[in-house]
Amino acid sequence: MNSYKIRQKFVEFFQKKNHKKVVSSSLIPADSSVLFTSAGMQQFIPYLNGKKKSDLKKAVSVQKCFRTSDIKEVGDKVHHTFFEMLGNWSFGDYFKEKAIDLAMEFLTKELGIEKDKLWATIFKGDKNIKEDLESFKFWQKHIPKKRIKKFGKKDNFWGPVGKNGPCGPCSEIHIDMGEGFKSGKCNLKTCGPNCDCGRFVEIWNLVFMEYKKVDSGKFEKLSQKNIDTGAGLERITAVMQKVESDYETDLFQPIMKQIEKLLKVGKVENKKAQRIIADHIRGICFLIADGVLPSNKGRGYILRRLIRRAIRYSRLLGGENNFLIKLAKKIIDHYKKIYPDLNKKNNDIITIIQKESEKFEKTLNQGLKEFRKLVKNAKRKNKDELDSKKVFHLYDTYGFPFELSKEMAKENGLKVDKKGFDKAFKEHKKISRAGAKKKFGGVGDLGESVACQHTATHLLQQALRDVLGKHVKQAGSDLKPERLRFDFTHDKALTDKEIKKVEDIVNEKIKKDLPVTFKEMPLEKVDETGALAFFKEKYPDIVKVYSIGDYSKEVCAGPHVDHTGEIGGFKIIKEKSSGAGIRRIKAKVGKDV
Ligand code: ATP
Ligand code: MG
């Protein structure tokens, strides 16, 4: 049975049981507090928490998912960054018994999987919530007791997302892939689900949302109980096709074959690298199709990491330039029937991969040379860690994401120090700030003038967005002792009225003497704060988000004043075009402007 048929069977089975088919949502979730859609339930949150009252009581979907948290797992048999999740839902309709019956009916009757191979797990209870005896009873309708295992919160309890909200025990269905599937040693007394040996693969998770965690930390019963399930299409396909890993299924075979052909490598040579390339190129295509662009922050940084990592692994196997492009074409071709967006975005996908690869490949060889030197030096000195400053240099000069150096170091039995890397990054900033000071004449208080201009630039950007609209984005900036220059996206000249309005807002904020504060946070948290990000900056993993009162929030390395009053005043001296769709403002700051 091919994967196409499995998707179709799944949807049709649940449609027959009166579930409404809902199409996959984008990999970029509507709720911007999370980076990517990582499970089918995300688009149903309003239904799950009962906020959205509607006729939708039962749903089925095949959801595109992306899990940044699994990047390290990729290369094994069953974890991918991008994958498809089959799921069915009940919003206040059926509950545990029927969810279990439906899952078992689908697996054994529709797909014909042998019952003897299936195992189930249930929540064993803890000090707050009792053991899930109901599920235990319902499972026994299908599976003998000895194949129903009990685990704690880590494996068999879902949610809440955040501090409180809906949550509940869950049951996982695992399949015994047989002795030959083992890839490690057993860690459980009796081998079974969750054993480290890898013989048992989790194929489906059924979440029984029946509790609500409240502020006091207690769990209350939910008034609307829900079912939320998720099954990995790749894993189920591997079971159905009786193959050794997800990569041998029809979902991955065309791409794996193309890799073998292009690299002229055999099936078994560096299997892990081949799997990583196949996984990443698939993820790359789907991310771009959903509108992600490579950058140094947030989603774009993840995309960049995937592209650079895929290139590095393909080089390891002797892949040449344009290797990724050829693979991308294969992916588009292979998936276009099911995801027409891939085909629509065909040009974008190819161009973006091409540009990004060219950029990285230019420096890759030099960077690798540099890296080998680092390893040699560390080994000669009997160190188990690479020099952090040099690792930062690899990032700054050759575009090696920190994680890439870390991974390569590990392959060489060495470590890298994240703190040291961050410190080197900070120092680098200081030096560039000192450089800026020098540019301003090297006199102490001119450093302050940089700070004034920096803070004024943040106020200006926010004021422009307030007056002209949210399309305004910084396109460049330059600070000189006598003036600041700010380029931004906007397609017509500003009227005198608009200029006056912007100036007035900035001056009002200066007068208010608003405090300027910053918070350091991991790059991926930035989106949640709603902070603006100057894209020209090269961001490290930990960035500073500067806030001016509650008026402006922006990622920046500073320096800034402590209070806006220090800026003194603000005056726009010129406004003109600076290319298509870009305007340029020159302005002065100080007490006497
Ligand atoms: P695992 O423990 O194997 O990582 P999980 O507990 O993280 O799985 P869930 O979050 O319950 O998985 O997701 C539901 C289903 O989605 C899983 O049962 C599995 O079939 C599939 N799945 C989860 N993560 C991945 C992944 N990275 N790649 C492919 N399929 C996945
Ligand atoms: Mg997981």
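^ magnesium ion complex. Residues 435-446 have pLDDT under 50 and may be disordered. Residues 346-380 form the longest helix (35 residues).
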